[in-house]
Amino acid sequence: MTKFFIHRPIFACAIALLMLLVGGVSILTLPVSQYPDIVPGTVQVTSSYPGANAETTARVITQPLEQQINGVEGMIYMSSNSTSNGASVITVTFEVGYDLNIASVDVQNRVQTAEAQLPSETQQAGISVVKQSSDITMIVSLKAPEGGYDNTFLGNYAQINLMDPLTRVDGVGSITIFGLQNYSIRIWLDPDKLAALGITIDEVTSAIGNQNKDIAAGNIGQPPVPGAPAVQYQLSTLGQLQSAEEFGEI
Question: What is the pLDDT of the chain when averaged over all its residues?
Answer without folding.
Answer: 84
